[in-house]
Amino acid sequence: MVNLEWYRSFVAVYRVGTVSGAAQILYLTQPAVSQHIASLESALSTPLFERMPRRMLPTEAGKRLYNQAIAAIETLEAIATQNTFADAPSLIRLGTPQDFFSEWLVKCLPQNNKTLFSFQFGLVQELIEKLLTNQLDYVVATQKIPKSELEYQPIFEESFWLVGSPQIKVPVSPEILQVDLTPLEQWLKEQPLIAYSEELPIIRRFWRVVFGRRTQMQAHYIIPDLRGIRSAIAQGLGYSVLPDYLCSEWVNSDRLTLILKPTKAVTNQIWLAYRKSEKQSQQTMQLFKYFVNYS
Fold first, then answer.
1. Which residues pair with 152 in a beta bridge?
2. What's the CATH fold of domain 159-267?
3. Checking DSSP bridges between strand 138-141 and strand 90-96, what pairing results, if any?
4. Are 164 and 191 contacting, i.e. CB atoms less than 8 angstroms apart?
5. What single string gives the DSSP state of each residue in the chain?
6. Class of domain 4-79
7. Is the dihedral of CA 189, 190, 191, 192 positive or negative?
8. Looking at domain 90-157+269-294, which of 3.40.190.10, 1.10.10.10, 3.40.50.300, 2.60.34.10 is its CATH number?
9. What's the pTM value of the predicted model, to 2 decimals?
10. Tens digit of each residue's pLDDT, the chain (295 residues)
């Protein structure tokens, strides 16, 4: 592997013309600079200088290398003399479910140049692993995965609604639904169900809480994307259970039909996960501020 210091020594010798002069500029010994040049020549398999009695003259290969390397070296040297870090915007690497980002989180983001964001989408388990290995700074999690290094702070509560297409006709009156949900459940068994996965995690929980029993239904369509499910429902392919943040605007604009908003709400907390060492950091406090201001 080529060491960056070899290039710095090469550029210094090229500019000054002597190893002794380059050593003074770099605050290194002459043997160290000579070793850097020799190592670089060995790595590139070509001589970079002609050793003259009083001067180091660059070869054609040396001239080409200087032209290629000088811009990068000057950029690195300039960093130390620029006051860019104190005023530079901070970068937040945030993992989140894609549907929650598109429908809610994007509305929380600040419209300024003080914070830079890099987003990654994926399943909660995958994102938490990236948080633990320092590939992410924060994760928006739809469930708490216990890890001793992490802390979770609630930022949002989603409620689940039963929704269908705009053309759907529910043969059960709202008055009956207030006292007996059995007719609705029987009717739903005859309708095509759309689910996120074969396990029906959200739907099974909704059935237990609202109807008081486990459901044995199978989905007619498996669509592993909540926004895809929403679109499929709007096209008349069936019904499903969706979080309110995803379907409330569509219900209000008659793109979806609200079949049931249960009296006993089915809710789920959404959390911001972060490393415990970052609990009091300015970045964490700022991120909470963005969420709270929107909520």
1. 273
2. D-Maltodextrin-Binding Protein; domain 2 (3.40.190)
3. parallel
4. yes
5. ---HHHHHHHHHHHHHSSHHHHHHHHT--HHHHHHHHHHHHHHHTS--EEE-SS-EEE-HHHHHHHHHHHHHHHHHHHHTTS--TTTSPEEEEEEE-HHHHHHTGGGGS-SSSSEEEEEEE--HHHHHHHHHTTS-SEEEESS----TTEEEEEEEEEEEEEEE-TT----S-HHHHHH--HHHHHHHTTSPBEESSTT-HHHHHHHHHHTSS------SEE-S-HHHHHHHHHTTS-BEEEEHHHHHHHHHTTSSEEEE--SS--EEEEEEEEEGGGTT-HHHHHHHHHHHHH-
6. mainly alpha
7. positive
8. 3.40.190.10
9. 0.66
10. 678 899 989 999 999 999 999 999 888 999 999 999 999 999 999 999 999 988 999 999 999 999 988 888 877 777 665 555 556 667 889 999 999 999 999 988 887 777 888 999 999 999 999 999 989 999 999 999 999 999 999 999 999 999 999 999 888 877 777 778 999 999 999 999 999 999 998 999 999 999 999 988 899 999 999 999 999 999 999 999 999 999 999 999 999 999 999 988 999 999 999 998 888 888 888 888 888 765 5
- Write out the two tokens for 59: 């070869």
Residues in the chain: 295
